[in-house]
Amino acid sequence: MTTEPVGPADASTRPRYTDIATFARLPRLDQVERADIAVVGVPFDSGVSYRPGARFGPAHVREASRLLRPYNPAQDVSPFANQQVVDAGDIAANPFDIAEAVTAIERAARELTADGARLVTIGGDHTIALPLLRVAAERAGGPVAVVHFDAHLDTWDTYFGAPVTHGTPFRRASEEGLIDTTASLHVGIRGPLYSRQDLRDDERLGFAVITSDDLQDEGLPRAIERMRARLGDAPVYVSIDIDVLDPAHAPGTGTPEAGGMTSRELLGMVRALAEHRFVGADVVEVAPAYDHAQLTAVAASHVAYELISAMAPRG
Ligand SMILES: N=C(N)NCCCC(=O)O
Ligand SMILES: [Zn+2]
Ligand SMILES: [Zn+2]
Fold this sequence. Notes:
Layout: E1 37-42, H1 57-64, E2 85-90, H2 98-112, E3 118-123, H3 129-140, E4 145-149, H4 169-175, E5 184-189, H5 197-204, E6 207-211, H6 212-218, H7 220-231, E7 236-241, H8 263-271, E8 278-284, H9 295-311
Parallel strand pairs: 1-2, 1-3, 3-8, 4-5, 4-7, 5-6, 7-8
Helix pairs in contact: 1-9, 2-3, 3-4, 6-7, 8-9
The structure holds 4-carbamimidamidobutanoic acid and zinc ion (2 copies).
């Protein structure tokens, strides 16, 4: 006999500001038999090229997620009622050795998904998408369509000779054959690049682009249409760098760029992924030291909530 999923703490009997924070006040993994979706933190930021601090992202997002409620009217779904969602705690990663950290993240992600659970990972800097994509492609049995929300391409080659950084995960992933190069795309791209060649390399690595300006010029419905057409029915991995939002919506991040999406636009695009086949997702680059009034962490926690809602079984 299957048991009902264990949901979040009841805010009407235990005020939502009580207790040690788990994501959305959900049970911990060790408090339930098994999970359908595990929210896991990766407090790692040794791959950053500018402001550090995303290692404190997971705890900050959990704190800001206390106000999330169990019914999501925008998707007409109760995301914690028909699937077991848990907080799996943090993956510990070596801050002094990127290669070792990446191996540890990959190993932990493999273990957490061994019984079919899917991950919603809270970063951490964008480096962590590489080991997460390795495991996602393994679970999908082949390359996955990546929807990558970001101000940045993150398909650069190296920084100071380092091949694995937060600016390079999608180039490495493409080289490793993890990415479905007919179905992947970036959304929200903007800002200065190193040269025009960056865009040519990016296209060759398998990405289409919906820029931040496209969203402004063509509107959300057209952007959603383009995204869904590109994805087709491929298995999808969603990677959300919170700096895709305008710094007005998400100041707490390491490499901010002016002219970004609103949180309403981002939530709308994530909701539109509901009918797609999710392999996993991440929300990265929340750096609390540059945040104000939990603005960035509230945005990140709501984006994670929409992801979990989009992953919930329908009908
Ligand atoms: N925020 C992420 N993931 N990448 C930004 C890298 C930009 C740069 O240093 O050129
Ligand atoms: Zn970025
Ligand atoms: Zn990024």
